[in-house]
Each structure stands twice: as structure tokens, then as C-alpha cells.
Write a structure and sequence with these properties.
By secondary structure, the chain is α+β, with helices and mostly antiparallel strands. The protein has six domains: about 250 residues, no CATH class; about 110 residues, no CATH class; about 110 residues, no CATH class; about 190 residues, no CATH class; about 120 residues, no CATH class; about 80 residues, no CATH class. The chain is built from 31 helices and 36 strands. Strands 3, 24, 27, 28, 29 and 30 form a six-stranded mixed β-sheet that branches. Strands 18, 19, 20, 21, 22 and 23 form a six-stranded mixed β-sheet that branches. Strands 31, 32, 33, 34, 35 and 36 form a six-stranded antiparallel β-sheet that branches. A hairpin with a 2-residue loop joins strand 25 and strand 26. The two termini are about 70 Å apart.
Length: about 1000
């Protein structure tokens, strides 16, 4: 523990977020101490008191029988020697609830099984948290220990025989050895402390709530109550229910098992002091039951009972009043039990009434919690469901759209006219020149064959981005030319935005030959990746291979090879060493006697010594011991390669790095590399001034599962905002968090908690800000919700008559859902090209296009969503229909079949639906790859427009065949498509 805390203090100090770590540690430690300490004091104190008040053993059966007959005053003195004879007579004449074996055995067995169930429930949660990685630190509140959860948990255990055997074994062990209750109490204290301490992300926001300025309709509470306060109250309930329920059950078992009651076959009844003790414990338990029912009222806004998410007609008219009544009655019972504890009267004439009252309360629990709501649902709601649920459906629609920011979508009608001309293509030349012909998968396969240089390098990913390039280096072609490009091009001084695929060349130590995988190589020599590739998305070189703006390792001061000097001016390269990356994971030591492998140069290797900001000095002996213990690597102590300035670099995986700093955020699955000079004027202290220009950009989200009435869907969240952009230096490892959505109340709360963690987006260098893009994961979640929640009329929503779906496409030879894709294009009614993210929709169980959603990423328009809805009375071809037309064309399908012979196969790439002016253009690349040692090449481009489909070698040829059919090149294949009948 000391080595872990010490090492992590050094690490957080290195990245500049020590305050974040210390507040987190202090909060978790305080929660653990308070919860575990209070629990252990309460449980052990009550069990110690129960040990004093329980009957002595052994208790002779004759004495028990005489006592039950009521004439053994000596036995009363024997059982309670501390009290006067008068008190003895009064106390033991009030002995309560004597039980014979036929009632005693089932009772103690049920209580023992309940202890076992509690042990299983809380133990399972604690074990999960104990083994949970940093990425799971932002956890939902566990299932609360309520009757319905107990029953469900019991059924799961019964279905697994070894679970059931273990449960029964625990119960029998408690009956034989009641002393186990003390050990279980200690385990409970440790487990509850661990569970509550893991939820520090729920506790801290409770004290720093930010108003949403929006209330939910059922209780009129501001939404911040549900997002910030309710989770903390649920955690309190989780703790107190376990604490008081176990305390009551454990003390009851202690009393019931005293006096050898099981072996004697009779329990003589609870004494006066035992009754007072149990009354106090029962009062505490009933207060928690009241709290549980009170919180259950608010949790109705997450109900899934009705036809829509959130409180339904039954919940509001039946369940809510029942919970309120049960809460009030539980409070009344609790105060009555406390009164009995404090003002005990030995001769209490209404003792039987108490038993009947508790029985009535349990009956009301069953009636109000289960029977009444189900009766209302089946008898009142279901026969008139739309009428009864209309208002509640409207609430679900409104709040779901708010929670996923769907209200901000600008919906427009888009009626494609099909009047696209060659002049329109020339007018939209930038869109045409940025049509993506290279998908990420074939480019990565090609990179791995041509650009990995050595086996220990790997390209884990390729990312779409846009760069502003000088036009004298931009080739004016969109597919493989038949002749080499003309080099005598007049250079110009203008620039042009180009869509590119950028991929990082990272170090993959697992690919180092097994014989060379030594400790020195792993931790001292193979320390970093080197370089990256940049490929235009729409051009290819001879043979159908991708062209590269940036490629190779040049082996000199230029570091990487560029296609021209202008590219080197447009895309900063510097010294492109990657110490922190997407697949980088192993810790390394730099500044040692062993030189680090920098990059290969011919048959030799170039070596380098790391001089970046990252790393923690471990030159002194005590630090070496500290990190050797933390990393469990004792060779760090024994090696002689370390110098006074030696550093250790760990948590080098970018996702692991940022999750360690801000585990309360949810991070996008796709981080992307950016090559930019982030400190051009050398005045920004957050960025280095040397020649390291590679940065990782990651989108981070604030999420919640506590937004009222908002549908959680399959992701388990019902609120999300893309509130943070994270930048990580690939060389120095520095991490900067920028607030991208200052209107988000959740990020405002975390900013108040950690004031030094976040910076405004305006503080991000402009060179990096120009590479911000709308994140795919966020877009997918929003687009998934929009398929249902674009329907704002309750009746249409109830009938699901306008449900949408994401269409399928053929990729390779298999059907799969269309993935959102980036384009540089001009949207309809927008007079300029921009970088957008686009996804088409089709109606449920239909294949014609019904709408498409676009997310804007540039400048002041960043984050704006546009929904273009197509007329329902017209047939607009969807991706599946275009794929079908392509594959059923006899000449095109014959050509694909010829390629799919033994040893090679054709891959149909992403089908892009591209809006141009008031028309839609469909483009699909076709690749050819060998079955072994795959090196995909782009061999054809398919273009579809209106009722024409063309397959040609280049995009220009295909477009000419569409818009200039009289000059169609010979290789092109043109097939008319008859207009299909619109779906009814």
C-alpha cells in the first residue's frame, strides 16, 4: 500500500495533477474509515451487548419447563443475578414469544439464510470493486438490498447447485457456531467500507451540485437532485440497510440460539432487556425501511413498467401513494419501537396488538407494493393504454430528447431533385476531390505490408482527419492514373483542405523475436515507436496502392519522407518519437547506460536518449526500491545500468493515462493522432518548444444513468454530453483537459471539485483546435436514440409507425450496419464545404432512404446537428438497394466473381451517400486482395446516380460516364436501373 500510494503520488506530480489524486485518496480514505469504523463499532457493540444479555448455557430442560410453567423464581435469579429479586420477578414474568422446536428451527434457519444472502450480495459487489480496473471507477449504484432483489438473488442461487450448497453451509455453520456472527460482522464492515469508498464519484458531486435549470414534471424537482443527490442517498440506503438489517438479524440469532435452545428443543422467550434491545434495533431498521420507501418514490421516474420509460399511469396513481403510505407507517412503527426502548413498561397490555400491527404492515407491503399496482395495470391501464399513458409518453419523449441533446437538432426537409450536372460537379470540386476511396481497413493492411519497416512496429489504427495543404503538392486525380503524374506543375501559394488518413507507427514489443525478449530489451532499449503515415483518402498510386504524403523513415535529419517540400511545410514532422500511444503499455527506463533504439537505418540502428518532460527520476536507491515494489520488478534494484538521471515511464497507454487522472469521465473508443505545432509562438507552458509535434486527441463524455424519464437504451446511460477534449503529447506524455461544452452542469460540478484540472477550450492552441471533430461514439448514441425519439407525437410513438433503423451495407462479402463516416462536403443550403460526420436512415423493415443525420465539426459550427428528412411519398434509394443493384448487375457481378477466384478476393468497401447540391451521389470503392499476405489494391470505383450505375477504374471516369455518357471511357460499365415502385 505504501509503495502504491508513493509511486502514484510521484506519477500525479509528474503529470501536474497531484491535487486531483490527493482529493480522491482523502475522499476514499475518509469514506472507508467512516463507513467501516461506524459499521464495526455498531455491529460489535450490539453483539457484545447481546452476549451479556443472552441466556447462560447450558440451561437444564427441567428448568426451562418449570420456567415456562411460570413457578421458578430461583431460575429467574439464576438467569439474571445482576438485578434485584423484585426486578427479576418483573422482568422474567414478561418473557415474550417462547418457541418450541417446530417454530424455532425454521425461524433461525431463515435468519441464517438471510445472513448468507447478505454475505453473498455485498460480498459479490465488494469483490467486483476490488478487482475492477481504473476504467471502471465511475460505477453505477449497486442493486439495493430490497425484498424484490433478495428474491431474485435467491432464485439465482437456487439455480446453481454449488451456490445453494455454499449458502446452506453458511447457514448451518452459523447455527452450530454462533460466534461466526462476529467474524461476519468484521467482514461486513470491511466490505461496506470498500463499496462506499469506490463510489467517491457519487459522494463528491453531492456537495457541489450545479443546477440544470430544468425540472421534471412528477415532483417538480430540479434535475440536479436526481443526478447529484439521489445517488448519494441511495448509497446511504445501501450502507444503512446492510448495517441495521445485519445488526438486527445477528442479535436475534444470538438470543434465539442461546441456552442451547436447539438442542433443548425450546426457546424460553425474550427477556425484558432482550426485548428492549431488539426494539431499539428494530426502530433503526424501520427508519431505513422508511428511507427506502421514500427514495423509491423518486426512483419511479426510472420505471420500465409502462409503454415508455419513466413513471407511468400505474406508477403515479397506485405505486406512488402506496410508497408514501408505507413510508409514513414505517416511520410511525420506528418511533413506537424507540418509545418502547426508552420508556419500557413491563406490563404492557397491547403486546399482542403489536404482533398484529406488524402483520398488517407486512400485508400492506404486499398489497401496496405488488397486488394493487398490478391490478391497476391489468384492469385499468391496458384496456385504455394510449389514453392513460399519453401524458407520460410525452414526458419520456421530451426528457429523452433533452438528455441526449436531440432538441438541438435542426430538422429540415430535403427533396432530392436529381438535377446534378457537370457544372455542379465543377462548382463542388472540393467535395469531389475529397470523396473517400480508401477505407481504414484496407489502408491499415497496406500500411502493415509497406510501412511497418520492422516486425516490432505496428499500425494499430488509421484515423480520418483534415489538413490544410498547399495546393502545389496536391495531385489532381481521384484514382490510379494510367500514366505517371506530370511533375512540371505550376506551384501556387494557395492552400486547400484535404481529407486524409493518418496512422501512427507504434512499437509492438510482442513482435520482437522470442530470443531477444530480455529484461534489458523490454525496459531499456525498445522504448518507443517512430513516425506516422499520411495518405489522401481519394488518390492512389500506380498498381492501385495508396499514395502517401508522409511515409517511411528517412534515416537522416528529415526523419520521415514527404511527397514534396510543401507537404513538409504543411504537416510538421520534427522528431516523431512516440513514447505514449494507443498500444504502448510496458513501463520503460530512460537515461540509462543502455542506449534506446530510435529507428532502423539500413542494416544498422540509430540510438537515442530520451530528453522529454515525462518520467520520474529513480536514481536514488530508495526510489528504486519503491518502484521495484510498485512494479513488482526486482531487477530494477539489481541492475547496474541506472544513472543518477534515470527515469521510469509508466502508464504510457494513452487511455490508461487519462482514465487514471479523470476516472469519472467516459472516454471515446477512438483516439486519433494529430501532427501540429501546438506552441508556434513558444509562449504556452503546457506544450513543449522542441521539435515534437505529435499529439493524441481524445473525446471525453460526462454521463449519467439518473436523468428522469430519459430512456437508458442498451448503453445503460440516459444522459451524455461531449464536454471535454483531451490532448496528450505523444513524446512528453503531458495531458491537458479542455471543456468543450461549458453549458453541461455535470462538467461544471467537476470543475468546481477540481478547479485546476480543466481549461477552457479557448486555451487550446488554434493549430490543435482546427483538428477537433465530432466524436463517432457520441454520434452513434445520439443517432440510435433518434431512430425512435424523432417521433414527438405520443400516438405515433405509441404505434411505432415511423420507426427508423440504420441500414446495412455489404462490406467484403458480409452485410453489416453502416458506420458513420466523415466527409468534406457542402450541406444542402450551406454555401461552403466543411468537415462533417454523416449517417443515413431507412424506415423499419424497409430499405429506401428516409433521412440522414449530419454533425458539423468546423469552427463556430462545431457540434451542430442537421437532420435532413426525405419525402415519404418518393422512393430514395437506400444503401441496401444500391448494393443489391450493384450485385445483381450481370456484368459487374461477373467481374467480381472473376476476382473471387482461388487465391484472391474482391472487397466491396464502404458505400458512401454523398449530398451534392440538391442531389445524392453514391460511391463505393472495390478492392482486390490476395488470400495470403494481404496487400489490398483499389481496382474499381462504383458510382450510382438516379437510375444509372457505373463501374470504372477511376472516380473521374465513373463521373464522366454518368454525366458525359457520349464520352464514356471503354473500361466503364453502365447499366440503367428501372425505377422501382415506391413501398406502400
Amino acid at each position: 500500500m505504501i509503495s502504491r500510494v508513493g509511486a502514484e503520488i510521484f506519477w500525479f506530480q509528474e503529470v501536474g495533477y497531484l491535487q486531483v489524486f490527493l482529493l480522491r485518496v482523502v475522499t476514499r480514505g475518509a469514506l472507508w474509515i467512516v463507513v467501516a469504523g461506524t459499521t464495526v463499532v455498531y455491529l460489535l457493540g450490539n453483539l457484545a451487548l447481546a452476549q451479556q444479555l443472552k441466556y447462560p448455557k447450558p440451561l437444564k430442560i427441567e428448568q426451562v419447563e418449570r420456567e415456562q410453567a411460570g413457578f421458578s423464581r430461583e431460575l429467574k435469579n439464576f438467569l439474571s443475578p445482576k438485578y434485584s429479586k423484585r426486578d427479576d420477578i418483573r422482568n422474567y414474568s414478561q418473557r415474550f414469544l417462547s418457541l418450541k422446536l417446530r417454530w424455532l428451527l425454521p425461524l433461525v434457519l431463515v435468519l441464517s439464510l438471510l445472513v448468507g444472502l447478505m454475505l453473498f450480495h455485498y460480498g459479490e459487489i465488494a469483490l467486483f470493486y476490488w478487482h475492477s480496473p481504473v476504467s471502471k471507477a465511475n460505477l453505477p449504484v449497486p442493486d439495493l438490498f430490497r425484498p424484490e432483489i433478495i428474491w431474485q438473488f435467491f432464485k439465482e442461487i437456487v439455480s446453481q447447485i454449488w451456490y445453494l450448497g455454499l449458502l446452506v453451509g453458511i447457514a448451518i455453520a452459523i447455527l452450530i457456531y454462533p460466534q461466526l456472527l462476529l467474524a461476519i460482522a468484521v467482514l461486513f464492515s470491511v466490505g461496506l467500507g470498500l463499496i462506499l469508498s469506490q463510489h467517491w464519484t457519487k459522494v463528491l458531486p453531492y456537495f457541489y451540485p450545479t443546477t440544470f435549470n430544468n425540472s421534471e414534471p412528477l415532483f417538480g424537482q430540479d434535475i440536479n437532485f436526481y443526478v447529484f443527490s439521489l445517488p448519494a442517498w441511495e448509497l446511504l440506503e445501501l450502507w444503512l440497510m446492510g448495517l441495521f438489517l445485519y445488526g438486527f438479524v445477528a442479535v436475534s440469532l444470538t438470543y434465539l440460539l442461546s441456552a442451547d435452545s436447539l438442542s433443548q428443543g425450546i426457546f424460553p422467550g425474550f427477556s425484558t432487556q432482550q426485548q428492549r434491545h431488539l426494539s431499539g434495533l428494530g426502530g433503526c431498521l424501520m427508519l431505513v425501511v422508511a428511507l427506502s420507501y421514500w427514495l423509491s418514490r423518486y426512483e419511479l421516474v426510472y420505471s420500465s413498467r409502462g409503454v415508455s420509460y419513466g413513471a407511468s399511469y400505474t406508477d403515479v396513481t397506485a405505486q406512488l401513494p402506496a410508497y408514501t403510505v408505507l413510508c409514513v407507517l414505517a416511520v410511525a412503527i420506528a418511533f413506537y419501537l424507540f418509545w418502547r426502548t426508552l420508556f419500557w413498561r413491563p406490563k404492557f397490555q397491547y403486546r399482542q396488538s403489536v404482533i398484529y400491527g406488524l402483520g398488517v404492515y407486512l400485508a400492506l407491503v404486499v398489497m401496496g407494493g405488488f397486488i394493487l399496482p398490478n391490478a391497476v395495470q391489468y384492469l385499468i391501464v391496458e384496456p385504455n393504454e394510449l389514453q392513460r399513458e399519453r401524458a407520460y409518453i410525452q414526458r419520456t419523449i421530451a426528457l429523452t430528447r433533452q438528455a441526449f441533446d436531440l432538441e438541438a437538432i435542426d430538422a429540415r426537409i430535403f427533396n432530392p431533385q436529381g438535377t446534378l450536372t457537370e457544372a455542379d460537379l465543377q462548382k463542388n470540386e472540393l467535395t469531389i476531390r475529397n470523396i473517400r476511396l480508401w477505407d481504414e481497413r484496407p489502408l491499415l493492411e497496406t500500411n502493415r505490408q509497406l510501412q511497418q519497416i520492422r516486425p516490432y512496429y505496428r499500425f494499430p489504427d488509421a484515423d480520418v482527419d483534415r489538413y490544410t495543404l498547399e495546393t502545389d503538392v496536391v495531385e489532381r486525380r481521384s484514382a490510379a492514373p494510367q500514366k505517371p503524374p506530370v511533375s512540371e506543375q505550376e506551384p501556387t501559394n494557395t492552400t486547400e483542405r484535404r481529407q486524409v488518413l493518418i496512422a501512427a507507427r507504434e512499437l509492438d514489443y510482442s513482435a520482437v523475436p522470442q530470443q531477444a525478449q530480455t529484461w534489458v530489451n523490454r525496459h531499456l532499449i525498445y522504448t518507443h515507436g517512430y513516425g506516422f503515415t499520411v495518405s489522401p483518402v481519394n488518390t492512389v498510386g500506380p498498381g492501385g496502392l495508396p499514395e502517401y504524403f508522409v511515409k517511411d523513415i528517412s534515416g537522416n535529419s528529415s526523419a520521415l519522407t514527404t511527397s514534396s517540400e510543401a507537404i513538409r511545410k504543411s504537416i510538421p514532422i520534427g522528431q516523431p518519437r512516440i513514447y505514449y500511444g494507443e498500444i504502448t503499455n510496458a513501463y520503460v527506463m530512460t537515461g540509462t547506460r543502455a542506449k534506446e533504439l530510435d529507428y532502423p537505418s539500413g542494416s544498422d540502428n540509430i540510438y537515442n536518449t530520451y530528453d522529454g518532460r515525462g518520467g520520474i527520476k529513480i536514481g536514488s536507491l530508495w526510489r528504486r526500491w519503491l518502484f521495484a515494489m510498485y512494479l513488482k520488478d526486482w531487477q530494477m534494484v539489481l541492475t547496474r545500468d541506472f544513472l543518477p538521471d534515470t527515469k521510469v515511464l509508466f502508464w504510457r497507454n494513452v487511455k490508461q493515462r487519462i482514465q487514471a487522472i479523470a476516472p469519472f469521465l467516459k472516454f471515446d473508443s477512438d483516439l486519433y493522432l494529430v501532427a501540429a505545432n501546438a506552441n508556434l509562438d513558444k509562449t504556452n507552458p503546457d506544450f513543449s518548444t522542441n521539435n515534437n509535434y505529435l499529439y493524441w486527441m481524445i473525446d471525453a463524455y460526462t454521463t449519467s444513468d439518473r436523468y428522469p424519464y430519459s430512456d437508458t437504451g442498451s448503453e445503460g446511460i440516459n444522459y451524455i454530453r461531449n464536454s471535454v477534449k483531451v490532448v496528450v503529447d505523444a513524446y512528453h506524455g503531458t495531458v491537458n483537459f479542455y471543456i468543450a461544452d461549458s453549458s453541461d452542469p455535470i462538467i461544471a460540478t467537476w470543475s468546481a471539485i477540481f478547479p485546476k484540472l480543466f481549461k477552457p477550450l479557448s486555451a487550446m492552441p488554434i493549430s490543435l483546435r482546427s483538428h477537433i471533430r465530432y466524436p463517432v461514439d457520441f454520434f452513434k448514441i445520439q443517432s440510435e436514440r433518434l431512430m425512435t425519439y424523432h417521433m414527438t407525437d405520443p400516438q405515433v410513438f405509441y404505434n411505432r409507425e415511423d420507426q427508423w433503423q440504420i441500414p446495412n451495407e455489404i462490406y467484403g462479402s458480409e452485410a453489416r450496419p453502416v458506420e458513420p463516416y466523415y466527409l468534406i462536403t457542402s450541406l444542402p443550403t450551406v454555401p461552403f464545404e466543411e468537415f462533417i460526420l454523416l449517417l443515413p436512415y431507412t424506415p423499419k423493415q424497409r430499405t429506401n432512404l428516409i433521412a440522414w443525420l449530419a454533425a458539423r465539426s468546423d469552427s463556430v459550427n462545431y457540434g451542430k446537428l442537421l437532420l435532413y428528412i426525405f419525402p415519404k411519398q418518393r422512393l430514395i434509394y437506400g444503401p441496401e438497394q444500391i448494393e443489391a443493384l450493384i450485385n445483381q448487375d450481370p456484368v459487374i457481378s461477373q467481374q467480381i466473381s472473376l476476382w473471387n477466384r482461388q487465391g484472391s478476393r474482391a472487397i466491396q468497401g464502404n458505400l458512401l451517400v454523398i449530398p451534392i447540391e440538391q442531389s445524392l451521389l453514391y460511391v463505393e470503392p472495390i478492392y482486390l486482395e490476395a488470400s495470403q499476405n494481404s496487400l489490398p489494391t483499389l481496382v474499381r470505383v462504383v458510382v450510382a446516380y438516379k437510375n444509372r450505375i457505373v463501374m470504372a477504374q477511376t472516380l473521374e471516369q465513373a463521373l464522366q460516364a454518368i454525366f458525359k455518357p457520349e464520352v464514356t471511357p471503354a473500361p466503364a460499365i453502365i447499366r440503367p436501373v428501372e425505377q422501382a415502385v415506391p413501398p406502400e
